[in-house]
Amino acid sequence: MRELGKHFFIAAVCFLSACTIAVAQNADWTTIHNGIEWTDTEGYIVQAHGGNFLQHGDRWYLIGEDRARSWNPDVNLYSTDDFVTWKFEGKIIKNFVTHEALGNTRMIERPKLMYNNKTRKFVVWCHWEARDYSASEAAVFESDSVAGPYECVWTGRPCDTKSRDCNVFVDNDGQAYFISTTDENTNLGLFKLSDDYHAAVSKTLLFEGQRREAPAIAHIGDTYYMISSACTGWDPNQAKIATSDAIDKNWSPLENIGDRIAFDTQASSILTIKGTEQTAYIYVGDRWMDPDLPRSKIIMLPIFFENGKMVLRYYDSWQIDLKRGLIRTP
Ligand code: GAL
User: Fold this and answer.
1) pLDDT tens sequence across 1-25
2) How many CB atoms lie within 10 A of CB 314?
3) Mean pLDDT, to the nearest integer, of 139-144?
4) From CA 31, how far away is CA 319, in angstroms rounded?
5) Which long-range contacts (CB under 8 A, 24 or more apart) does 278-281 make?
6) Which residue owns the Cα nearest ligand 1 atom 11?
7) Most ligand 1 atoms within 8 A of CB, residue of 112, 213, 265, 268 to mutate
8) Beta strands in 74-211 (DSSP E)
9) What is the DSSP letter of 246?
10) Which of 21, 101, 300, 307 lies 20 to 30 Å from 223, alpha-carbon distance?
11) pLDDT tens digits, 236-274
């Protein structure tokens, strides 16, 4: 009887330990749901399209276009620590307020936020455009604090080049680049930025004549990856991927990635989440006009690497352990 009691005790301890481990392992999984509207902590729809993420301090910041009302979006900023709970940090660039042309003769698309470690300033590069897309310019804004106020540093054509759809990329050494669709949507222009991130100092044309836009770059190991789309306005199209061992040369030919309409998205950024066990990479895209511009969705998909290639699959929902950098799919 005593022996039986001992076995029962051991079995009970094992069972409880297994439960504890299961709970501990479950504790940090965050579920990302795609295809739904995100709401902020005050219950309003998150309006941050065509943007990017910046990790700063213990928070993640999401910058993007506020498409709630108008053709000329204000620029919104949100913060989160779990990619599910979104705190509205404010309109950091406002029509008619931040710049006199904004909302009159110019609008902003694809605002992208960076932190400059040398100057300790937050810098935004974006597409700075006329209503008919004839201006083909970029703009730069800067602030001492992430939530603003932001002041305009410069507007114009980088290296005198007509420039539209855009993104930024900050390499491991802090060197920043502005990359945009140039020359009437013909080429991608890679612009090296000055140390203060205020100016484009040199230009390299990539994928010449291939009419790519919505570029999103990640530097993973020794390889640069660039996802981009074709130019079909708000309609989705086949995303393509290219790789290189150098940011400004040696890019491979473009190859298809995802399904033929990029799961009804267009790339806005690639998120890098450094966990204690591994680094997770997340494709972030805009599902524009779903069913109208204000209700466009932000879609997040885990990136996998199979046989040396980047692979994207669609999941209505999937999980990430942000601390450990682990991904779990259904
Ligand atoms: C897309 C572009 C968007 C927006 C849209 C307007 O091609 O990626 O940022 O400019 O066209 O039609």
Assistant:
1) 444 444 444 444 444 444 333 444 5
2) 15
3) 98
4) 4
5) 278/324, 278/325, 278/326, 279/220, 279/325, 280/320, 280/325, 280/326, 280/327, 281/218, 281/220
6) 233
7) 213
8) 74-80, 87-93, 107-116, 121-129, 137-143, 151-156, 163-170, 176-182, 187-193, 200-206
9) B
10) 300
11) 999 999 999 999 999 999 999 999 999 999 999 999 999
Rounded to a whole number of angstroms, the distance between the first and last alpha carbons of the chain is 46
Peptide bond into 236 cis (omega under 30): no
Q: How far apart are CA 145 and CA 61, in angstroms?
A: 12
Chain centroid to CA 94: 21
Which residue type is seen at 110?
R
Q: Could you tell me if 133 and 211 are in contact, meaning their C-beta atoms sit under 8 angstroms apart? A: no
What is the residue type of 213? Answer: E
Cβ of 234 below 6 Å from ligand 1? yes
Would you state the structure tokens that stand for residue 328, as one six-digit string?
A: 């779990």
What's residue 27's pLDDT?
59
Which protein residue has the closest C-alpha to ligand 1 atom 6?
233
- Compute CA distances 155 → 6, 93, 136, 261, 281, whole Å: 77, 14, 11, 33, 32
Asked if the model's pLDDT at residue 104 lies above 60, the reply is: yes
Q: Please tell me the pTM assigned to this model.
A: 0.92
Contact 80, 86 (CB under 8 A): yes
CATH homologous superfamily of domain 30-328? Glycosyl hydrolase domain; family 43 (2.115.10.20)
pLDDT at 223 over 80: yes
The residue whose CA has the least distance to atom 12 of ligand 1 is 233
The reported pLDDT for the residue numbered 26 is: 53
